[in-house]
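Same chain as my last thread, 252 residues:
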Amino acid sequence: MEVLEAGTGHGSLTLHLARAVHAANVGIRLAAACVDQSLQAMPRAIIHTVDVSSQYSQHAAKIVGDFRRGMYLRNVDFHVSNVSEWIEQQMHARGPRPFLSHVLLDLPSSHNHVGRATSALHVDGKLLVFNPSITQINSVVQYIKAKRLPLQLERVVEVGPSMTGGRIWDVRFAKPRALIKGVDQNVTFAKCANADQAVEDDAKASCLNDGEEEQPHDQQSFEIVCRPKSGTRISGGGFVALWSRNRTRQDD
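reply #2:
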């Protein structure tokens, strides 16, 4: 299992990931008395963490290495690179087949790296994006739709101080009912006051009458629904979006 973390930062998430996969690597280190001391078995699970800053990468390596005498350090490979360039280099060396079980993007412009990350992601693998702003999540959603990437959005969760479990957000493409029926082209999405006035991109909603057909998709006429499903507004924290990689013909 290989997991990619893009955006090492100070290493706190890197340490949690290293601890999460540690059980898979217990007992695989070869005894020094039996073999060359320089020879060690490859780990069954590895975290690849990539950051453009060598300073951050070195600091994160120290954080992981200093925790419990470095027992989790061997679970992590630290890389200093642009994440898209790193993935491209890996796929050039390994071949065009996907090699990553899961991908975590904690970057300011995550949408610029989603395409390359998806090409390296196994079927049913998870793509997780963390951004401080919901508009950044929107950029990723729009990019995935525009490029028709084989990713299915599962959920968007708002996280923050003293928040347990997060707050679920509704983020999806929708088309105003008026545009579907062709009644009034001047009706804006802002006037859609309730969910019955919009139709989701991937399925017909209940607001369509029986026998009424959806018009051919027009990318220009879609808008993004972006609102909390419940709860109250909070400050701080950020947003976590989770996608699952779908199977394509190229995977068969």
